[in-house]
Amino acid sequence: MDRIDCLRAFVRALEGGSFSAGAKELGIGQPAISKRIATLESEFGTQLFSRTTRTLKPTAEAHRIYDLARQILDSFDMARSSVEQAAPRPTGTLRIGVPSSFGRRYMMPVIAEYVRNYPEVRVDIRFSERFVNLVEEGIELALRIGNLEASTLVARRLGTVQRHLVATPTYLHGRPLPRTPDDLSAHQCIVYSRMSPAQQWAFESEHGRHVASINGPIHVDDADAMQEATMQHLGIAILPEWNAAEGLRSGELEHVLPDYTIAALPLHAVYPETQWMSLRARSFLDLLVDRAEHFTPVPSHTRAAGAGG
Question: Peptide bond before 197: cis, by omega within 30 degrees of 0?
Fold first, then answer.
């Protein structure tokens, strides 16, 4: 049996989450998928999937083989395209990870453009605020906001995320207005639980760096939820530009501590360090780089300063 067909069946089944999904994508019957994967298991001398009546779970060996299998298939498809004297086209399933709130605001237009350009690719989008393990979850490329820890991932800088300290006029009414970061200890603050340390906020001013200890009634791990908690007058929050801009323009939100700034966070595309990046991931990364300016909108205070000029 053709080992390329076996590898393709394995990759499609793993990406689709079932033998039936892999069979449907390849246009063959489920027994043919099972036979091809059984051939690979015999060839490699190891089980690739744990099967029950309801679930199909890749084994640790399957995860180790998966990246190499994709490289082999991409190389084979490129070689075939070169013989056919046609430019290679991305194919298969592109699994990407994006931060939930950022992804809702910015990613779907980019993904729609990509799908229109490359209809042979199926895009599997994973929305999460977690820094997931790309290799274990079969994610080829992810977007991450914040300073990156040391890892084997390759990172490509796309831009920065501006942040604002804000609250509603209703919350601020009748309370002493903070003048310095230390004054925040007397206020309710909405804590983003994925920031480390979560209960310390750092500010910069002409006098240097200031770190304030904060506390509050609610901890959340999603920027949209943090915005909603702020709009419900539950306290002061640090919101990213896309969550703060509309409220600041309309007056529903006010800047707190305007003489202090909060450091912007870097935005990166990250992907596993491999000898061969798939054509679908490479083409998507190229599109991200081309559209990067849309991910870093002009901060709301800059727009306000330039209005009416």
Answer: yes
